[in-house]
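Posting this for the archive.
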Amino acid sequence: MTGRGERALVLGGGGLAGIAWLYGLLTGLAETGVDLRRADLVVGTSAGSSVGANVACGRDLEELYATQLATGTGEVAASAGGALAWRMARAALLGPRGAQQVRARIGRMALRADTVPEQERLDIMASRLGGADWPAAPDLQVTAVDAHTGAFRTFGRDSGVTLTEAVAASCAVPGVWPPVTALGTRWIDGGVRSMANADLAAGYDRVVVLAPLTSGFGAMARPVTQVEALAASSAAVLVTPDAAARKAFGRNVLDPAGRPPSARAGRTQAAAVADGVRAVWG
């Protein structure tokens, strides 16, 4: 198939544990000769936006992996437990079930939440990105949702927002972190639409989707469903955490303490999935 490009890398959401697992997996795959940085398109959602931005900007994988093993990085612990899941589900179920309507209700919940100041989150994102700006190539697309309307969109280098703002918006977990101000409105986590948004890679010949979290509720499209649709016209593969990685994640993917074991689990898992990824990536 000839689409908009040859290779697309899609990185999904999963909190701090997901970031660490993604860096471990990418580093381990590179060790086997499967370099997923050779992408024409990088799609990042939530945790995947942070990882995707650094990968697209050409930062060294070993150095990024090492950051996940370090302590005292300035990351703030938060809870992603049952109470948050209940609030999200309540916002999703109490009212019309249209996808954008559900996202708007979740957005209203996020706008009301008592969180850390927005600038504090922007500073953390800038630290994660090492001051990087939008790369000229590959095409980096960062997903987000308008907190007021529920409208979904992607940010790219011509979107009028900084890379830091885009990643902070995509990582703005509703009810946990503050919505991010840009383009005259406020934005929340792109994972509210889908934990991977893999459908954005439609039209690419080879698609690799790395999804730390695979669940969804209501109208949210699950990564496996999106990858199955892609596979009808592209070579596509989905990689999700194995049992060891899920154990490493623990019960709270937003706890910085889960970063080192999750990174190691991702790096270890890479050997088991390398052949399948190589068969798609080429």
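Residues 72 and 256 are 9 Å apart (CA to CA). DSSP finds ten helices and eight strands in the chain.
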